[in-house]
Design brief:
The chain has 389 residues and is an alpha/beta fold. It is built from eleven helices and 19 strands. Helix content is 33%, strand content 23%.
């Protein structure tokens, strides 16, 4: 029975739950990490995985939280090394055309705000772009916002590394083990977590189940309304991974090309490209047929070919990996993180941009859970702001 006693159980073996489990274990807590399938088997393995605060400038608190995520990755890289984490310090380029008056003005305004927030970014012209990305066919009037500190991540690799760190600090990782119900006293205090494999004895449970948060919370508590009314949408997106382009590195940075046809690409860790676009995300559903996914993927490959003359384009479609990632998106667009109001010992994280935010929210939640005090940076994102909680 002593082996099943834990200071906290974390539900969810994606990047958010696993990273939070690491920070809790680093604070000296005995952690059980519970995942219904395999680690990083869900959204984390189907994410574009660009770490940044560059694209989040509309709200300063949310930008600062994302910038904290970037800083936390830098701190982890100093401690463990980029290769151990699966981190590529590529930098990002958001490319626009001067002839696109609205798009150019929006990018310039973003650059101004980032400078105001002291975020590492600068503006580069067409000549510099050509030197930074020699394989890319940029229009003559192309310029870009260059965020030199933005890395990209091999997210499944990172998740497995974080899980190993949890184990090294005395924690246990339960895979293929669905969480079922909470054990709770009459006063609302959590006393345990019933799972498929065992009942874990703990007075603290942290739920980080990504897009499945409403359903899992409903199952844990027996309160059906969570499944229907929890303030979280599920947003599908198509991600395409090409085979290796060796001996060439067709792109060197994370590229957001906001020109004639929007596309975003980054150098994948297999030597190929990882490709997506906002408009093609809207063309797919979580259960889209494979034939339809192939048709949408062909659109992405044609766009990539337009910018990369040396790329195979749709000729490599049959060798590409296509995945639809279902991303959690809180209704107001900002993260949900904190104690569940009215419960004792039950905590929750639900967030978009989980790749960027995992070490920021993970560290802040570890501070909240171990000290009982909500860190200032986390206060704008607690669940009390949502009407009904």
């Amino acid at each position: 029975m002593d082996d099943l006693n834990y200071d906290i159980a974390v539900i969810g073996g994606g990047i958010v739950g696993t990273t939070a489990a690491y920070f809790l274990a680093r604070e000296g807590m005995k952690v059980a990490l519970v995942e219904r399938g395999r680690l990083a088997g869900g959204t984390s393995s189907k994410s574009f995985a660009w770490i940044n605060g560059t694209s989040k400038t509309a709200d300063e608190n949310y930008h600062r939280l994302n910038a904290r995520g970037l800083a936390a990755y830098c701190e982890l890289a100093v401690e463990f090394g980029e290769d151990a984490l699966g981190l590529n310090p590529a930098g990002s380029l958001n490319v626009v055309r001067r002839s696109d008056a609205a798009g150019y003005a929006a990018a310039k305004e973003r650059a101004r705000v980032l400078a105001e927030f002291s975020y590492p970014a600068t503006w580069v012209d067409r000549k510099v772009l050509g030197a930074m990305e020699p394989h890319v066919n940029f229009p003559d009037d192309a310029e870009a916002l260059y965020a030199m500190a933005d890395p990209c991540l091999n997210a499944p690799h990172f998740v497995r590394f974080m899980a190993d760190q949890v184990r090294a600090r005395g924690g246990t990782v339960y895979e293929d083990c669905a969480a079922q119900t909470l054990e709770v006293r009459d006063d609302g205090q959590v006393t345990g977590l019933v799972t498929e494999k065992a009942t874990l004895h703990t007075e603290r449970v942290l739920l980080a189940a990504g897009p499945g948060t409403p359903e899992v919370l409903s199952e844990l508590t027996g309160y059906d309304a969570y499944a229907a009314r929890f303030p979280l949408r599920k947003v599908p997106g198509l991600l395409l991974r090409t085979p290796s382009n060796s001996p060439h590195r067709l792109i060197r940075h994370v590229l957001y090309l906001s020109m004639d046809a929007e596309i975003h690409m980054l150098p994948d860790f297999n030597g190929g490209l990882k490709i997506g676009a906002d408009d093609t995300d809207g063309m797919v559903e979580a259960d889209s047929a494979l034939e339809h996914l192939h048709n949408v993927a062909a659109i992405l490959l044609d766009r990539a070919k337009d910018y990369l003359p040396g790329f195979a384009g749709r000729d490599c479609l049959d060798k590409c990996e296509l995945t639809v990632g279902v991303r959690p998106f809180p209704e107001d667009g900002h993260s949900l993180a904190g104690a569940l109001p009215g419960a004792k010992g039950l905590y929750l994280i639900a967030t978009h941009s989980g790749i960027t935010l995992a070490p920021a929210i993970g560290g802040l939640m570890a501070e909240l859970i171990t000290t009982g005090a909500t860190p200032e940076m986390l206060k704008p994102f607690t669940l009390e702001r949502i009407k009904g909680f």
